Structures are given as structure tokens and as C-alpha cells.
Amino acid sequence: MARIRTIKPEFFTSEDIVSLSPLARLLYIALWCESDKDGRMVWKPRTFKMRYLPADDCQIEALCQELIGSGLVILYGTGSFAFSSQY
């Protein structure tokens, strides 16, 4: 179930965030709505594409890999992930 989340103003000037591409930033924010209170959820990139970036011409796997590579998202188990930090 999607949840309402807020974005703190310092999010936009965080070094971790400004190093991401604009669509990766948007995807990262969108994933907050998917996660539980501990920042965990099922990792389904194609679902993320359909739900959050349906009209954007982008490679969702590349965006997801960008988030993983930045260390902002950590995969664990089968098809699950957690956020490494909260903004």
C-alpha cells in the first residue's frame, strides 16, 4: 500500500542526491511511497516504471542500478531492498 511521505528541504542539496540523474532522484522519492516504515519493500523495477515513470522514455533497470550503485538502496534477500539512509 502506498504511503504519504514528505521531503525535507535539505534533500535537494545532499551530496548523495545531487550526484544522481534527475529521473533517478524522482524514482528514489517515488520508492519512499512504496516502502514500509522501516524502508523495506519488494524490488520490482518494471512495476516502478509502470507506476511512477509511465510516460518517460527511460531504462528503469539503469535507474535502479544507479540507486543501488550510489548506496542509497541496498538489495537483500530475494526481491527485497531497504533504503540505506532517510531524508
List keywords for this structure.
87 residues, alpha+beta, Arc Repressor Mutant, subunit A, three-stranded antiparallel sheet, 4 helices, 13% strand, globular
The overall strand count is: 3
Tally of helical segments: 4
Structural class: alpha+beta
CATH C-level category: Mainly Alpha
Low-pLDDT runs of 5+ residues are none
Global geometry: globular
Q: Averaged pLDDT, please?
A: 88
Order of helices and strands: HHEHHEE
Largest sheet, strands/sense/barrel:
3 strands, antiparallel
Explain how this protein is built.
The protein is α+β, with helices and mostly antiparallel strands. It has one domain (13-83): Orthogonal Bundle (Arc Repressor Mutant, subunit A). The protein is 41% helix and 13% strand. It is built from four helices and three strands. It has helices spanning 15-18, 22-34, 45-52, 60-70, and strands at 40-42, 73-76, 80-83. A three-stranded antiparallel β-sheet has the order 1-3-2. A hairpin with a 3-residue loop joins strand 2 and strand 3. The radius of gyration is 12 Å and the shape is globular. The model has no long low-confidence stretch (mean pLDDT 88).
